[in-house]
Amino acid sequence: MKKIMNTGLLALAFLVISACTSTPVDKGTDSAVPSGKGIVNINNQELQVLMDKNVTLVDIRRPEEWSLGVIPGSKKVTFFMKDGSINPELIPQLKRVAPTDKPVALICRTGNRTQVGSLMIKTQLGYPTVYNVEKGITHWYSEGRAIAKR
């Protein structure tokens, strides 16, 4: 069963990657309100507003990337392994930290993996709203925002 689910997620990831180049994602506003598709690109200021409202932030990078630092309060769940495959424990780990009936925000290094991950969890797991932090944690660092060492 696990193998079938992982194969299905992998197939979806390939479809999502190709769709990301042609499928528009909602652009956030100062209030970060989605316009209907349920996936919203946001900037760091919008992320801070969401975090202040207790929206779960999930850092989808790999453990070796977390050692550089994470945003305080973020949850760490690797989405994609170093070889590009989907983390076989992704679904149970994600559901433990981010209930599927609530909005969730995703961050990675530069925003590329979260584009794919956002569409993946929106379509496969049914999150009502998924916020994609556009420029990732590298931009968070560059703005001098708070970082916690792992």
TrEMBL record:
SMART domains: RHOD (SM00450)
Pfam families: Rhodanese
Protein name as annotated: Rhodanese
Nucleotide-binding in keyword set: no
Keyword presence, Protein transport: no
Alphabetically ordered keywords of this record: Signal
PANTHER family: FAD-DEPENDENT OXIDOREDUCTASE, OXIDOREDUCTASE
Organism: uncultured Thiotrichaceae bacterium
Signal peptide (from-to): 1-21
Span of domain Rhodanese: 51-149
